[in-house]
Amino acid sequence: MTHVLRTIRNELSRLTLACDGNIAIIFGLTVPVLISLAGLGLDSASFYNQQTRMQSGADSTALAVGKEMHLYTDDLGSLGIWYRTR
Description:
This protein is mostly helical.
């Protein structure tokens, strides 16, 4: 176990002393991609939330109109009778 920890410590110290710059380049190239993916996830969640709220409002409106027109039955003929009497 101590051998593994010693190896990890040696590798980390070698990495911090490296002057090649490979890590900085990789980090610089991946950070914008990761930030963009996080933003895309947030936008997608916001879009889905808005769509759900709009659908809920449309459903509530349809139910209220149906109740107001006394369309609780499965008989759609009553809609025609209601429309002709108005």
